[in-house]
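INSTRUCTION: Work out how this chain folds

Fields: amino acid sequence; protein backbone structure tokens

Chain under study, with its fold:
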Amino acid sequence: MISPSGLLESSPVAAEARNTISWLVVAAAVVFVGLLAYTLFAGWLPAKQQVARLEAEMKDVYTREAALLTRMAQQDQRSTLRDQQLNALRTERDALAKRVEELERELASLRARRR
């Protein structure tokens, strides 16, 4: 009879324990990991840089938009002020025109009395 320790030392079991991973599989795995890392970083880094550029450009666009909105609001205020001044001048002109007409009528009536 074979002892239990003798079973473990027999040739089929010892051969299985000594099986190692093929170097070709290890090399393929390393190449695969390298290609995967390159693919990820080759796509990720430029995308990250492009995102940073786009964020900076958006910030610039928002800054210019704010400046344009401020200028537009100022121009609207100026336009409103000019309209108010123009309306005030028109009202004053109309009042002066009525006064001139009244004075001309008064003058005409005074000239008619003198005759």
